[in-house]
Amino acid sequence: MGLDYRGRIPMLVLRLVALAATVSATLIMGTSHESAEYFGIKFEANYKKSPAFKYFVIMNAIASGYTFILSFVPAKTSYGHFVLVLDLVMTLLLDSSISACLAIGQLGKNGNSNAGWLPICSRVPKFCDNVTAALVAGFVASITYLIIVIYSLHNLINLLTLKS
């Protein structure tokens, strides 16, 4: 019985790290906002203004809820393969949301001279710093989920080789 707990502890720690990272990314991005005035026009920067930022917040919130619920599922269930597939889906969704958010963040930081878009991070630096922090937390969550998938695959392969 002690071996079961020792085998479950690494997965529990990884899931807690993933939960902390996804909750942090959601809260940081969801609460970041800043107002600025540019050429006499006042504008507000927040995550609701960009579909990519909304997608990032929604995917991290979904991953947070999924991880929280999964922390109450017993280790020895018949749903192991299904959980592995869902973990892989969460990893891919987090990766896609980070990619979208990173593209918009890069555009906000550097602008696009070909399209005539000016960088805004010089006008709203606190917002851009919060976006960067949320992206870092998102990267931690994504890497943690990748490790969870690899660890689960390793356990599955060991289980299959023991049976044969």
Question: Any descriptors?
Answer:
164 residues, mainly alpha, two-stranded antiparallel ribbon, elongated
Write the layout of secondary structure elements.
Elements lengths: L1 H30 L1 E6 L2 E6 L4 H20 L9 H31 L14 H39 L1
Antiparallel strand pairs: 1-2
Helix pairs in contact: 1-2, 1-4, 2-3, 3-4
Structure explained in plain terms:
Belongs to the Casparian strip membrane proteins (CASP) family. Homodimer and heterodimers. With 164 residues, the protein is mostly helical. The chain has helices spanning 2-31, 51-70, 80-110, 125-163; strands at residues 33-38, 41-46. A hairpin with a 2-residue loop joins strand 1 and strand 2. The longest helix has 39 residues, at 125-163. The chain is elongated, with a radius of gyration of 20 Å. The two termini are 23 Å apart.
The side-by-side strand order for the widest beta sheet comes to 1-2
Unreliable residue runs: none
Helix vs. strand class: mainly alpha
- Indicate the mean pLDDT: 87
What overall form do the CA principal axes indicate?
A: elongated
Beta-strand level of the residues, as a percent range? 5-15%
Number of helices: 4
Subunit structure: Homodimer and heterodimers.
GO cellular component, one term: plasma membrane
Family: Belongs to the Casparian strip membrane proteins (CASP) family.
Protein name: CASP-like protein
